[in-house]
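Exercise 7.
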Amino acid sequence: MRQATEAALAEALDLRPEQARAALKELTTWGLVGRHDASGFRAVVPEVGLDALVRRRQADVERARIAVGHAFETQRRTTRRAEVDSPVEVVTGPAVKLRIRQLVNSVRHEIRRLDRPPHLFGPVNRAEIEQLARGVTYRVVYARESLELPDYLEENVTPCVEAGEQARVAAELPVNMTILDKDLAWLTRPEDGQDGTLTIVYPGGLLEALVGLFEICWKTAVPLHLAAGTGPSIRAADRRLLVLLNAGVSDTRAAQSLGMSRRTFYRRLEQLMALTATTSRFQLAVAAAQRGWL
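Solution. The predicted structure, written as C-alpha cells, is:
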C-alpha cells in the first residue's frame, strides 16, 4: 500500500481510528511517513527515512557526549587546589566489586543504568531482583551488543524485567554507567585479567551531565517488553526471538543468543509467521504487538 488514508490504514491493520492517528503522527515525526495530500499518507523509502532517523538519534547522543566532556573540563578548571573533597573517586583492583556492592546497598529510590559489555559481574543480577522486590525503581538501557551475548537476555535481562525492571534497547551506548538516586554515578571499565577501574562521580556539574546523558539515551531507546501479554500464549523462546528481532539484533547473533542453529532459528521464524498469518517481519512485529507478545 504505497498511499493510503488514515481510515484505510486503520482498517487494514485492525486498529481503532485514534490508534492509527497516533501511530501516523509518530511516524511522521520520525520522518518515516509523509503526507501526500490533505488526507493521504505515503511511506518514505525505508533507506531514506531510517537513515535520517538514525542520524538524528546519533546526533543526540553525540551532543550529550560532548556536553559530558565540557562539564568535566569545567569541573576540573573550577575545582580549587585547596579543596579536600574531590568530585571524583577512582577505585581499582579487588576493591572495585566490594565498593559497587556497598554503593548498590545504599540505594533508596531509583537506579538508572546504561548497560554495555564488557561487564564486571556475572550474568545473574541477584542484588537488583532483591531491590526491585523492596520497591526500588530500575530503569536500564541495554546496548544491542549486550543482548547479543550468549544467555545474557535469558539469565540477566529477562529475570530483572519480570521482577519489575523498566528496560529499553539502544543500538549503541557511549559508556557503562550507573546512577544511584540523585546522589552519585559510577562508570566501570573492565580490563583483561584485572578487576578494572571504577570511577565514582559525586554531586556537581559532571554528575548533572551524566544524568542528562542517561535521559537522552533513555528517550531515544526502544522499549523492551517481555511480559506475557493478554493474547494467545507462545513459548518463552519464541518471545525472546521476537524481542531480539525487534531490538535489531542480527539473525546470526540472535540464533547464538538463543542457543539455536541458524536452521532452527529460521524454522521458528517461519512457524511464527504461519501462526500469525503474516508474510514479512514487519507484519510479524505488528501482529506480535497486537497479541501482547512484545
